[in-house]
Amino acid sequence: MSDKICAVLPGTDTEREEKKSGPQNKKEMSGEISGPCTALTIAGSDSGGGAGIQADLKTMMAFGVFGTSAITALTAQNTLGVQDSLPVPASFVEKQMDSVFQDIFPDAVKIGMIADIEQVSAISEKLREYGAEHIVIDPVMISTSGRRLMPEDAAELAQEKLYPLAELLTPNIPEAEYLADMRIFSDEDRKTAASVIYQALGCPVLIKGGHAAVEESGGGCGPGMGEEDRKSANDCCGREKGASGRSDDLLYDGENMIWLRGPRISCKNTHGTGCTLSSAIASGLARGQMLEASVRAAKRYIEGALRDGMDIGHGNGPLNHAWQESLSPAVK
């Protein structure tokens, strides 16, 4: 990663600026900062290395962004599943965020797994305190199988205090159904849900299409898949060899409904794709890209990592975050 001038883009969204109650972004005060672009991931740790902060940091490095982290939970897991987990006290999550913001102020923030309501409150307050920008949130709430991954009280508070801070929210279809309080069976349903979510939370939304691709082709995410790979843009990307179909994502920025079309790639190693996608988007924003360009580059990166076909472990393994040496074509 070469040294560069990391441009700081001035805020243009008046509504978003009004939501911030914290001090002015320290990087904005100086206009430009010498050195590499930086990003912070606030998420759980995956001992298997395929999802969570491990996937986030690998992705950020692949995009030429220096990654920092605040861990919300420790997990004992591998490609076969999650064996155990241990939430981090909210007060210690705050201390991690303080350490990062006070020394290596991030150009973007990615948020993944949040363990409880105390963490939701602490994280949202710290983001406001420091005036964090370019926040991408992967709302880890509901798995494809319908299992709740975030307590109900935490999910409700997140909608009130945390999600409105996001520059982008990246729900899968079950999560979009929860946020919009409706069922999604078609493209038109997804458009309606995206509009409802935007109106309710005031932030752009990317409704990922991996689940729709599987439903249309008669596939499914069977037992043994980790919770993170159940919930990504391409998580159900054709577990049976030769599966066909598409994985189309819908981006709504409050004005435009933008379809990002893509193939449903035949593979079984998809663990951590949701984490990787959101981190790739945050990396693009950290580098100064506009939202749509960041999303498109992230989708290309995911597709390349899945096509690489890396096979690690005895279950549903991770994708290859280092599938190419340089991402310069992807991030332009």
Distance between the termini: 16 Å
Structural class: alpha/beta
Number of helices: 12
State the strand order across the main sheet: 5-4-3-6-7-8
Average pLDDT level: 80
Radius of gyration: 18 Å
Shape: globular
What assembly state would you assign to the polypeptide chains in this entry? Answer: single chain
Mind describing the biggest β-sheet? 6 strands, mixed
Order of helices and strands: EHHEEHEEHEHEHEHHEHEEHHH
Low-confidence stretches: 1-5, 7-26, 28-33, 213-244, 328-332
Number of strands: 11
Strand content: 15-25%
Helical proportion, percent range? 25-40%
Description:
The strands form three sheets. Strands 5-4-3-6-7-8 form a six-stranded mixed β-sheet. The chain has a three-stranded antiparallel β-sheet with strand order 9-10-11, with helices on both faces. A two-stranded antiparallel ribbon has the order 1-2. Strand 6 (108-111), helix 5 (117-130) and strand 7 (135-137) form a beta-alpha-beta unit. Mean pLDDT is 80; it is low at 1-5, 7-26, 28-33, 213-244 and 328-332. Helix 4 packs parallel to helix 5 and helix 10 (273-286) crosses helix 11. It is globular and about 45 Å long. The two termini are 16 Å apart. The protein has 332 residues and is α/β, with parallel strands linked by helices. The chain is 38% helix and 17% strand.
Key words describing this protein structure:
alpha/beta, disordered C terminus, 38% helix, disordered N terminus, 3-stranded antiparallel β-sheet, 6-stranded mixed β-sheet, single chain, 332 residues
